[in-house]
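If it is no trouble, might I ask you for a protein's amino acid sequence along with its backbone structure tokens?
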Amino acid sequence: MTFSNLLIQWYLRNKRDLPWRNTTNPYSIWLSEIMLQQTRVAQGMPYFLSFTAAFPTVFDLAKANEEQVLKLWQGLGYYSRARNLHKTAQHVADELSGVFPTTYKDLLKLKGIGEYTAAAIASFSYNEVVPVVDGNVFRVLSRYFDIETNIAAASAKKEFAALAFELMPKDNPAIFNQAIMEFGALQCVPKSPNCSICVFNGSCVALQKNKVDQLPVKSKKLKVRNRFFNYLVLNDENNNTIIQKRIDKGIWHNLYEFPLIETEKEEDFDFISTQIQKDFGTNYEIISVAECNEKSIIHKLSHQHLYIKFWKVNIKGAIKNGINSTDLKMFPFPIVIHNFIEKDL
């Protein structure tokens, strides 16, 4: 029996019941694919359900303001995905009358849609014969065929896409694409897959050569930058505080945060309290400064590790345009700040 037949039979027996699989609506499929980039299905599902409830059509998403979108996205990370999602919804609603492009080539022209997402929408919505290539596909094919190509290399995607194209049934590419991704997610997992129950255990070359844990090959190392954030939680006599919007490009663009002192290393109480006096002493009479968390909260992003401390700064009088704790919770924050607000304010 061929690879694709075995794979599809496995899929039909084992597939998860996911809402975006019960439709060919490109809007729902696009939403799910953007949300599931860098995100596990279990984590992404509640967000998908919240988004489709709040914005049932591309017109609803287009009409929303960016802060609404970012607030609903809060906790999913990689916030540029949400901003691009919103801009693309506006483009589709306003320029394309709400109709998504129907081909892989035209889908690629939309902001935030790369080769993988375009292929997913084109095959799942329109049954176009185009292979999807994500981490699951790299893993399944590299193990089954014992391919030692470095998947971090620029040429790897082309090589694996050509192989997947050869293998897929041309009359039903959608089910093949769903099947190979699901197989990688559930069976041919990154670490310690249970090969004893695998439908391919008689034909997988990596298993025969005892190389399953060595594939796929990925040699590109990501440089991680350490950053030290000190957030100042000002508190006036009315229990109001202040926040600011991150307008610079980079992490958390257009999300909100408390006033920030970023340092080169982890600094002690004396250093931070002196800096607070310099930054705020001319505008406010500072009564006290206290460390909210003695140990830094380490928040890991793909390319940065943030060491975060919160400092409670009590001030005399009232903050101009201060925000109370109820209104504070309406703003979109990075999840680490949101968690602090929920737990400690």
